[in-house]
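Researcher: Go.
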Amino acid sequence: MSSLLETQRELAKLIMQPMTVREGMRTASRAGAEKFIKPNDRLTSFERLEIYNRGYWFRVLDCLAEDFPGVRAIVGAGRFRRLSEAYLAECPSRSFTLRNLGSRLAEWLKANPKWLGREPQLILDMVALEWAHVEAFDSAELRAITPEELAQAGSDVQLQLQPYVKLLKLHYPIDDLALAVRNRKRSGKLVSALRQSPCPTTPVFFLALHRLDYSVHYRRLEPEAYQVLVLLRGGAGLSDAVAGAFESSEMPEAQQVQNVELWFRTWQSLGWFCSRQAGDTDGKGKA
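Model: Structure:
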């Protein structure tokens, strides 16, 4: 007799399999359905199990659409549906939570470029932003360092960025489109403008995503500001991070001083910094 675990695995495999193009359960599953499910006076074993297969499949498709509305706006509803079905067939959920459903989408798209069409970098930029949005929404928040603690620590302090602060470098200014789509505003003109604009050979837009009052916010950064934060996240001390960020900058020195003061005052007020924990060597701290 099969163990309970084996039974659960077989049944889960039947329920979690992709549907047919006609949105039904695959006929090859008939024997499996009859093995586990009894028919009743209205439905066969296959028809009863199909209800769960369809319910699960529609649910994961909806979740992916909810997490990547900007990608859907760029590629269109029909193409996004086909892309989602292909992705989920190869990268099914492996987590207890559907929060992680899109964690492999960027990697999968790079390995399957046919789904990127004529605007590959635009789509990849949006995937990166929308996955960062998911992570910023529910990543840990550590105790923020106070202005007094920062002042006492001096220029050699090692600051840790809050885990929910996500840093991106992008080829396109897609934050406006992402916000318009999430706020259910008309986005057709924005999509058209982005499609028509030439794709830079290197990233030229820098963005920080952070959480405030249970909402995710986007904040554009100057290249040097982005580099300061990247270096801090990588474990650099405050003075080294600032020096490294301006190493190749053409910004006048006086302007550098003013900008650094403004940036840190703003980041501090938003609670982005916490002191590096004792024994913390990976920059992640403890939740």
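Model: The chain has a mean pLDDT of 91.
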